[in-house]
């Protein structure tokens, strides 16, 4: 609580006879912060945060004034603030390495002669285990049990470690496997909209805010809770009391009008919004939704749009609190006293959206009439690649020619060993109802169930080459689908429950049936996946499937029936019914009224209350996991899952000065839009890869490799997996590059895996740089994309532009991000990879400083290339000087 209160705004709010202390924006405006009532709602949340934490050091009076000045500069001034979120959300892929780091910090603190207890979360942390379940079994009633059994068999060591963390650290809770997806659990249960805590004998009320170690943390903005994804290392710092250093953003207002037409879903809407915002360019900006269209949007629809913030590039997509928020809080079983506080607090603060109030001030705006939205899908490899449903087939045929370079045999079908059917290009190999993006939304899930019911009644069947799955984001979904009887119809088409978790959306689709996989790979088929997820990047969904399409759950079911993405489902039949007559999509698509009637009858407050009553208890598997005790972790040197990382080895109490980058070698030349999936894959580990060889050398059988995501607690595996995605292309190896994580080592000119080359350079004490195109590091908030890059010895990444989270993560690991200052690129500079790079002035860097890279070509000629250093803030510069954010925090805590 601020002891300074420059604007005399600490007040008392009485709600139903109980007093709450709060920092009043209305009073702050009266006392000098002129006009702040006109700020966007999301900016009001930041303002309250600074008023509450004003300490004269990390938050000064002028920082608060800068938010009022935002009304004039609208985010263009780039003022820096220290923001403190209320809590931290984690999932297990990113959470395990974060807890590993905290455990390692405890060891390091003890080595520095201090108490391990100094390393403890200071804000509430919730870790939801959702990323580990894989769709090994599918299409039968026992699939769920088999997948859960395999999950525990593979991940027992990781789960023991997390259980240790739960007993060792304060303010740290673990939601066990099989509960749901972290963002849906956050939306339905964890988020409170207004947070409270006891402080100085008073109950302090303030906005619920969070950062999460998953990029889709943005989903909770649909509930009026400001939140976004950060790297694990930044989240760890936030847990330990460090503010999140950020620049006051531009806020793009997105005005929504009208309402969706009959037959159009929230998924169609979010794909349209994503395409529009990607085209506009909102990277590093807040997006805030407003306008009369909000009146026609359910909370679940808003959450679907907020979820895909990373796909449209924004830091967040914010919806203010209103009567629909309160309705949702009640329906999901929140405490009635809390709901009353949310409404009273929001109204007192001017944070309540009233359709009759004037619009806030925005940096700029764009508008969408929701009545113009049409049924859509996005693919085959970008979330913003929206296609109207009737264009999907022709769009695939175009991609087949232009992107996949298939110029002959486009319609040829091939036999499958042991089967009576044939498959060809564009056949749907995977149809998955998956992901918090859509499974949090009853309207599209009920629609999928009703479409399945209608299809079964017509006698339609799923095509035999389609791998089907249903993986809801919470147990509530399973309850209302079962209670309504719709699960039986989904089961009849093969959409049996396979698990509660992320599954196909993050690449945990499991293996295709061997005969299908063999036919696809031997014939070079471009097979398709249709999923209700949020990402469809190359190589993400399955190594056997190249064309990935995002679609609503009912369209996922429809494509399982059609078996192909080549058909135009608006005019061609899905198949023949039991009467031999063609059945079209329009024949089985449910009406909005039918969907709404099912929701009103089956999606109830009672179900939410029942399913979340024992959310931290877990199933019998979880309860049997043995918990090692102790405030420091007993590392197992033989473990291939959890190892003590090297970040704090021989760390001096005082950091060494930064050194210039002298005669660095180029490790890779990458193209545009390299994702964090490309840099640090989450999926399968190939036997002949450096990571596969490491596991084999340590006695792990290939069947037990699991996947990169589950091995993130082991730096040895992860550094070998860096740049090892099967689809990443290094242009040092020819004009078209070579896929699969290879490079050329100089001066030996040997072609080898990137890891092997990096280790040679490390032995030779040769620093490394990486070059890339636009939007380097987009996608997941994957801190291992930066950690692995650092452990390979990369000192700098030079790109045309960076995605927000990855840029921050690079700095957090002591790597300097640079962008070309003059619009040039590695291609325009004629780089081949045999050059050396020198960057001076590193030891005198200032935030966003301009400098030069001296490129020395193989023939001895040189060129100075102007660069802009993307270390954006003074705090980030401190992290860089310390070798990374964790070292900075550790030294500060040790000095207290």
Automatic annotation (TrEMBL):
Residues 77-563 form the Aconitase/3-isopropylmalate dehydratase large subunit alpha/beta/alpha domain. One of its GO terms (molecular function) is aconitate hydratase activity. It comes from the Bacteria. InterPro entries: AcnA_IRP_Swivel, Acnase/IPM_dHydase_lsu_aba_1/3, Acoase/IPM_deHydtase_lsu_aba, Aconitase/3IPM_dehydase_swvl, Aconitase/IRP2, Aconitase_4Fe-4S_BS, Aconitase_4Fe-4S_dom, AconitaseA/IPMdHydase_ssu_swvl. Residues 693-821 form the Aconitase A/isopropylmalate dehydratase small subunit swivel domain. Keywords: 4Fe-4S, Iron, Iron-sulfur, Lyase, Metal-binding, RNA-binding, Tricarboxylic acid cycle. Pathway: Carbohydrate metabolism; tricarboxylic acid cycle; isocitrate from oxaloacetate: step 2/2; Organic acid metabolism; propanoate degradation. It is an enzyme of class 4 (lyase). Gene3D superfamilies: 6.10.190.10, Aconitase, domain 3, Aconitase, domain 4. One of its GO terms (biological process) is tricarboxylic acid cycle. It catalyses: (2S,3R)-3-hydroxybutane-1,2,3-tricarboxylate = 2-methyl-cis-aconitate + H2O; citrate = D-threo-isocitrate. Belongs to the aconitase/IPM isomerase family. Monomer. This is Aconitate hydratase. It comes from Bartonella tamiae Th239.
């Amino acid at each position: 609580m601020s002891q300074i209160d420059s604007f005399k705004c600490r007040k008392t709010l009485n709600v139903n006879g109980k007093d709450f202390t709060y920092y009043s924006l209305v009073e702050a405006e009266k006392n000098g912060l002129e006009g702040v009532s006109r700020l966007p709602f999301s900016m009001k949340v930041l303002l309250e945060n600074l008023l509450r934490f004003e300490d004269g050091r990390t938050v000064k009076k002028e920082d608060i004034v800068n938010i009022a000045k935002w009304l004039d500069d609208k985010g263009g001034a780039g003022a820096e603030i220290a923001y403190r979120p209320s809590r931290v959300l984690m999932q297990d892929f990113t959470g395990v390495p974060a807890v590993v780091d905290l455990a390692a910090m405890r060891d390091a603190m003890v080595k520095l002669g201090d108490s391990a207890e100094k390393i403890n979360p200071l804000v509430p942390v919730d870790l939801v285990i959702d990323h580990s379940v894989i769709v090994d079994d599918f299409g039968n009633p026992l699939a769920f049990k088999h997948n859960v059994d395999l999950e525990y068999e593979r991940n027992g060591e990781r789960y023991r470690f997390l259980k240790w963390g739960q007993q060792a650290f304060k303010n740290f809770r673990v939601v066990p496997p099989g509960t749901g997806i972290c963002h849906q659990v956050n939306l339905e249960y964890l988020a409170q909209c207004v947070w409270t805590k006891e402080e100085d004998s008073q109950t302090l009320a303030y906005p619920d805010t969070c950062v999460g170690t998953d990029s889709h943390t943005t989903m909770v903005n649909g509930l009026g809770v400001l939140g976004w994804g950060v790297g694990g290392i930044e989240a760890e710092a936030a847990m330990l009391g460090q503010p999140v250093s950020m620049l006051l953003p531009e806020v793009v207002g997105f005005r929504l009008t009208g309402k969706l037409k009959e037959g159009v879903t929230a998924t169609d809407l979010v794909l349209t919004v994503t395409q529009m915002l990607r085209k506009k360019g909102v990277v590093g900006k807040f997006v805030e939704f407003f306008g009369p269209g909000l009146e026609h949007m359910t909370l679940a629809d808003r959450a679907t749009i907020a979820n895909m913030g990373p796909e449209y590039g924004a830091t967040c997509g914010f919806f203010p609190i209103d009567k629909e928020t309160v309705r949702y809080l009640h329906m999901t079983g929140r405490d009635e006293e809390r709901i009353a506080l949310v409404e009273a607090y929001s109204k007192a603060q001017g944070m309540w959206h009233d359709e009759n109030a004037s619009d806030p001030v925005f940096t700029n705006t764009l508008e969408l009439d929701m009545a113009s939205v049409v049924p859509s899908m996005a693919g085959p490899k970008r979330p913003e690649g929206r296609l109207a449903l009737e264009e999907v087939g022709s769009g695939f045929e175009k991609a087949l020619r232009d992107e996949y370079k298939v110029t002959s045999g486009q319609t040829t079908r091939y036999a499958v060993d042991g089967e009576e059917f044939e498959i060809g290009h564009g056949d749907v190999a995977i149809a998955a109802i998956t992901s918090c993006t859509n499974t949090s939304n009853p309207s599209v899930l009920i629609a999928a169930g009703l479409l399945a019911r209608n299809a079964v009644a017509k006698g339609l069947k799923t095509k035999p080459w389609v791998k089907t799955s249903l993986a809801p984001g919470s147990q509530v979904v399973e309850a209302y689908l079962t209670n309504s009887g719709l699960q039986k119809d989904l089961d009849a088409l093969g959409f049996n429950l396979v698990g509660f978790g992320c599954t196909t959306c993050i690449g945990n689709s499991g293996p295709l049936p061997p005969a299908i996989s063999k036919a696809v790979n031997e014939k070079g088929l471009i097979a398709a996946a249709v999923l209700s997820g949020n990402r469809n990047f190359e190589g993400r969904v399955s190594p056997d499937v190249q064309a990935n399409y995002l679609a609503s759950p009912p369209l996922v079911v429809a494509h399982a029936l059609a078996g192909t993405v080549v058909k135009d489902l608006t005019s061609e039949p899905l198949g023949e019914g039991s009467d031999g007559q063609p059945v079209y999509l329009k024949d089985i698509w449910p009406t909005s009224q039918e969907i709404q009637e099912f929701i009103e009858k089956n999606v109830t407050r009672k179900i939410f209350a029942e399913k979340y009553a024992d959310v931290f208890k877990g199933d019998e598997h979880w309860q049997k996991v043995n918990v090692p005790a102790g405030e420091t972790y007993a590392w197992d040197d033989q473990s291939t899952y959890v190892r003590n990382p090297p970040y704090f080895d021989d760390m001096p109490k005082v950091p060494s000065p930064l050194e210039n980058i002298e005669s660095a070698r180029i490790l890779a030349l990458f193209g545009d839009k390299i994702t964090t999936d490309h840099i640090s894959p989450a999926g399968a580990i190939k036997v002949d890869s450096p990571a596969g060889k490491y596991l084999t050398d340590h006695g792990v059988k290939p069947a037990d490799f699991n996947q990169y995501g589950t091995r993130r607690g082991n730096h040895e595996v992860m550094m070998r997996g860096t740049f090892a995605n099967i689809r990443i292309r290094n242009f040092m190896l020819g004009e078209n590059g070579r896929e699969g994580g290879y490079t050329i080592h100089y001066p030996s000119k040997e072609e080898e895996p990137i890891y092997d080359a990096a280790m040679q350079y490390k032995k030779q004490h040769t620093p490394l740089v990486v070059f890339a195109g636009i939007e380097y590091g987009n996608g997941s908030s994957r801190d291992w994309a930066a950690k692995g890059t650092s452990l390979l010895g990369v000192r700098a990444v030079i790109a045309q532009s960076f995605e927000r989270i990855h840029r921050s993560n690079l700095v957090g690991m002591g790597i300097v991000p640079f962008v070309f200052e003059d619009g040039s690129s590695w291609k325009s500079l004629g780089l081949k990879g045999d050059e050396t790079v020198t960057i001076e002035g590193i030891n005198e860097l200032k935030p966003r400083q301009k400098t030069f890279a001296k490129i020395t070509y193989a023939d001895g000629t040189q060129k100075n290339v102007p660069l802009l250093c993307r270390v954006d803030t003074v705090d980030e510069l401190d992290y860089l000087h310390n070798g990374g954010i964790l070292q900075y925090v550790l030294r500060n805590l040790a000095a207290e």
